[in-house]
């Protein structure tokens, strides 16, 4: 079992930055990849970024590549999502998730989810 708690969301202006944090706890964390996903009202949950336990395997959605950076601090069981050059279309509830996905961008392959944190980008 893995527990995840997100924090760091808020209201920011177009072009601003935020850093989201995901605190992980539980057993065998090294078995799990951590992903960030987001869901805007009326839309499906979509992949944003993912990172392996070692940090050696990263992947980003095309819409955030070059603007967002995922990282992890294993000693603290923390995963971060640094978001720069934010746009209004980045507004959503952001979730971190843990899993052992065969396809790292596939939402359904992540087993454990946090409660989400709201990000709102004003124009």
- Total strands: the figure is 11
> Looking at the structure, what is the overall shape?
globular
Helix proportion: under 10%
Structure annotation, total helices: 0
Given helix and strand content, the structural type is: mainly beta
Major sheet size, sense and barrel closure = 7 strands, mixed
**Percent in strands:** over 45%
Report the radius of gyration as a whole number of Å: 13 Å
Q: What is the averaged pLDDT score?
A: 95
Instruction: State the end-to-end distance.
Output: 40 Å
Low-confidence stretches: none
Q: H/E order of the elements?
A: EEEEEEEEEEE
Descriptive notes:
It is built from no helices and eleven strands. A hairpin with a 6-residue loop joins strand 5 and strand 6. Strands 2, 4, 5, 6, 9, 10 and 11 form a seven-stranded mixed β-sheet that branches. Strands 1-3-8-7 form a four-stranded antiparallel β-sheet, with no helix packed on it. The protein has strands at residues 2-7, 10-13, 18-26, 33-39, 46-51, 58-60, 68-73, 78-83, 92-99, 110-113, 117-122. The termini are far apart.
Key structural traits:
single chain; 123 residues; mainly beta; seven-stranded mixed β-sheet; four-stranded antiparallel β-sheet; 11 strands; 0% helix; 53% strand
Give the secondary structure arrangement, pairings included.
Elements: E1 2-7, E2 10-13, E3 18-26, E4 33-39, E5 46-51, E6 58-60, E7 68-73, E8 78-83, E9 92-99, E10 110-113, E11 117-122
Parallel strand pairs: 2-11
Antiparallel strand pairs: 1-3, 3-8, 4-5, 4-9, 5-6, 7-8, 9-10, 9-11
């Amino acid at each position: 079992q893995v527990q995840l708690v997100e924090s760091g969301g808020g209201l920011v202006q177009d072009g601003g930055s935020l850093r989201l944090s995901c605190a992980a706890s539980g057993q065998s964390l090294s078995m799990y990849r951590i992903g960030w996903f987001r869901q805007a009202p009326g839309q499906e949950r979509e992949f944003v970024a993912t990172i392996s336990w070692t940090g050696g395997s990263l992947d980003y959605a095309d819409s955030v590549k070059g603007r967002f950076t995922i990282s992890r601090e294993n000693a603290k069981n923390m995963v971060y999502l640094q978001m720069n050059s934010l746009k209004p279309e980045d507004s959503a509830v952001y979730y971190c998730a843990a899993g052992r996905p065969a396809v790292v961008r596939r939402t359904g392959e992540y087993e454990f989810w946090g409660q989400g944190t709201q990000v709102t980008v004003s124009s």
